[in-house]
Write a structure and sequence with these properties.
- The chain is built from four helices and 29 strands.
- It is mostly beta strands.
- It has two domains: about 25-320, 6 Propeller (Neuraminidase); about 320-375 and about 395-405, no CATH class.
- The strands form seven sheets. Strands 1-26-25-24-23 form a five-stranded antiparallel beta sheet. A four-stranded antiparallel beta sheet has the order 2-29-28-27, with no helix packed on it.
- It is globular.
């Protein structure tokens, strides 16, 4: 290594950005004094033109969220010096998924995020051009591909079980019930605000867990995601004894109205997942065929196929680019506390490292900073959250145009 390369590597290591030669360029798109991030990987962070990237900001990091804590909402103009454009605020958010901030599918003008009015969770549809806002009576979890409807979770119940995905300040009237008939998944019309409970926790426990005993454990819902054609949705049914005691998970799917329920995986260890197409889910779990790894699961047939366990051997936050040709994912901190971003080419079975980014030990537990990479609609950019520059969590952009072609 020549002196110039050595000094460049030394400078990178000093900021925690462990970059090697040949890796695609990375730049920070937010800066202090606020800390900035976006959250989960299955939401539309970019507008359809790939110019504007949504984000949130606050002024603290290493503690639990309280009902009094507020979060700024904004977007970054990637073609105007990464200028931050403020859009509003919310009183309902979590460290991992923030306030479900995202673009309405297909819209260049409207975004949506969750908020709280009194002790009720609501959502706002906001026009970034006109600044007009309308409020819907339920907080959303995920949106249909045609932006006509949303699925909603019980965020107050989640907060009592897993605060990194639940919201503070709400009321759970069924907190004493293990599997209430009036809590579960709601369907919300994004035009009229009409909503109805389409699948209850009481419905779910009627289907026994074949791998163990959930007697005395409290049921809740996590990670709902609608299929690309809008005809079915997947979700994680979870249960446990409370915060800090661990939990078990099984994956289920249902049609768009909560009917035709199907148990997909019930080892108790289902984790991150995403839809590749209307019939295929990519899920990290532990299955008798190949142990703990990524699987492609055919939803109608419930058929498991391991996905290159030799290379794709780390759990992470997964999504698909270019019609499924590429998989974008990351890892939890390794033994040196570096979080890796990478692409995997499903045709050539080639893994492309995008970078390793240091996460200090204080980023742990509920307030850890997962990198959760999100790609732009044009498939040329990836934005992720990271504290590697030692200035707190901020958003960073990787130019992957030369990688994906």
């Amino acid at each position: 290594m020549d002196r110039r390369s050595f000094l460049a590597a030394l400078a990178a290591a000093s900021t925690g950005n462990l970059r090697g030669e040949g890796l695609p360029p990375v730049r920070a798109i937010t800066k202090g004094p606020l800390f900035h991030w976006f959250g989960y990987y299955d939401k539309l962070q970019f507008d359809p033109t790939s110019r504007f990237a949504l984000g949130v900001g606050n002024d603290f990091q290493h503690r639990l969220v309280t009902a009094a804590d507020r979060l700024r909402i904004g977007m970054v103009d990637l073609e105007d010096g990464d200028k931050w454009i403020d859009l509003g605020e919310t009183k309902s958010w979590s460290w991992h998924q923030t306030c479900m901030l995202q673009w309405l599918p297909g819209s260049k003008d409207e975004v949506i995020w969750n908020d709280r009015e009194g002790s009720s969770f609501v959502s706002h549809v906001f026009n970034v051009r006109t600044r007009q806002k309308r409020t819907l009576p339920k907080a959303i979890y995920c949106l249909s591909p045609d932006a006509g409807w949303a699925l909603c979770n019980d965020f107050a119940r989640s907060a009592s079980m897993r605060p990194e995905t639940g919201y503070m300040g709400g009321v759970d009237p069924y907190s004493s019930e293990l599997a209430p008939a009036k809590s579960g998944i709601w369907r919300l019309d994004l035009k009229t605000g009409h909503h109805e409970l389409i699948l209850s926790l009481a419905d779910l426990v009627k289907i026994p867990w074949t791998e163990g005993d959930w007697t005395g454990m409290k049921q809740y819902i996590d990670h709902i995601l609608i299929a690309p054609d809008g005809k079915r949705f997947a979700f994680l049914q979870r249960w446990g004894k409370g915060i800090g005691t661990g939990f078990f998970t099984r994956m289920c799917t249902a049609d768009a109205h909560g009917q035709n329920l199907r148990v997909i995986e019930q080892s108790g260890k289902a984790s991150h997942y995403n839809w590749r197409d209307p019939e295929t889910i990519m899920l990290w779990t532990e299955h008798p065929s190949h142990g703990a790894t990524w699987y492609l699961i055919n939803d109608p047939k419930v058929k498991f196929e391991p996905l290159d366990a030799g290379i794709m051997n780390k759990n992470g936050h997964n999504s698909f680019l270019r019609g499924g040709r590429w998989i974008l994912s990351d890892t939890a901190p390794d033994q040196n506390r570096n979080q890796h971003e990478y692409l995997y080419n499903t045709r050539t079975r080639r893994k492309v490292e995008l970078g390793a980014f240091y996460s200090a030990p204080e980023y742990k537990g509920v307030w850890r900073c997962d990198t959760t990479p999100r790609s732009s609609p044009d498939g040329r950019k990836v934005v992720f959250d990271s504290p590697h520059d030692r200035v707190g969590r901020q958003m960073y952009l990787i130019d992957i145009a030369q990688v994906v072609g």
